[in-house]
Amino acid sequence: MGLSVAGSVVAICLCFGVTYGSEVARYDNYRVYEVIPTSRSQLKLLNDLKQSSDSLIFLESGINVGAKFNIVVAPHKLADFTEALHNEGIRARLLETNMQKSIDEEKQRMVAKRARGAFDFNNYYELEDIHAWLDKLANQYDQVELLEGGHSYENRSIKGVKVSYKSGNPGVFIEGGIHAREWISPATVAYILNELLTSTDPKVRNIAENYDWYMFPSVNPDGYVYTHKKDRLWRKTRTPYSGGCFGADPNRNWDFHWAEQGTSSRCQSETYGGPYAFSEVETKTLSEFVASLKGKIQAYISFHSYSQLLLFPYGHTHEHTPNHNDLDEIAKATVTSLAKRYGTKYKYGNIYDAIYPASGASVDWAYGTLDVKIAYTYELRPGSGSWNGFVLPPKQIVPTGEETLDSLVTLLEESQKRGYYENCKDC
Q1: SS3 letters across 345-402
Q2: Positions marked catalytic
Q3: Which domains, ranges and CATH numbers included, belong to the chain?
Q4: What does the record give as the active site (predicted)?
Q5: Predicted TM-score of the model (pTM)
């Protein structure tokens, strides 16, 4: 998605700083369709549409015949879109006639909540509120240390915390919000962080106190702010590029088999991998921070949404990692654990096969460059049958956090059983 995102409404950046123009992207009368291709020619058409038009936003897409596509269609593009589908014999199911309605309702809840001044887990929060909460935790708990994992193009801090109850623990790195519009990701990271400090559950206390936690709720701060201020569906960073284009996909920008699979060379694309690996200051500075922890980090967990998937390397190739069987068995136990509380069903597998080819991702980089052999990506609620995955109702934050924490306990238990934390020499 490039500069123009809403027909005649354009989000404008006045300068290379943090001041944006007065216009806000709106999605009035934008329709959401579910489309499932039944032939290779139908699949090709959908992928061509994905690359060719900024007025179509693909919320969910696949690479195979029979995969589900959820597509947001601008009003002025509706005739062309439906005719293209008709000519190819593709059937589309209308899921929503006005996407802006959900966005407006979400905003109203946030305004009301912020007016009351509380920080809890019944709503989504802006970046400054999350950072203020992290500051508060550092002042309140001796076990919490503030960290800066890097900075953004607009010079915002990639702020996080380390939680450590004793020396010598293996480390777990938690990354949230790398895709700006996936608000359930920072919210889930914050929920888990709070539970590590406050829960009395013996299993939670065990992982809280026997691992060091490096937790970063929002590693794409410019993009996250932009979703709150200007465009709720923005995904990328905010680096300005030529031709009035902004941002690269920060989860296609890491220097491990960069730009080989599942990425675009078009700046307007939502999967634009950037002009070169680590072109985005966010990924460059965060990677330098993570690399400084080499030997201390034994697990790398990235939270995304949506589709209810648990993924592990590789994304750039169908070839399996050396410890693929372990990662697969751990994932199976993890999603089984996650389902126990609310019945939420996850699928699992290596990135390339389970979702789609995608190179330049953070978990692949951690696995392949830093030798972090426990590396997973969660695609959180909702499942693939929902169209509003990025505008998930806030009443689902706590249930999502609860079941995810349940599963994280299992993930660490299962990987510990297999000896993955025994050689933590630098911990």
Answers
A1: CCEEEEHHHHCCCCCCCHHHHHHHHHCCCEEEEEEEEEECCCCCHHHCCHHHHHHHHH
A2: 379
A3: 31-97 (3.30.70.340), 110-418 (3.40.630.10)
A4: 379 (proton donor/acceptor)
A5: 0.92
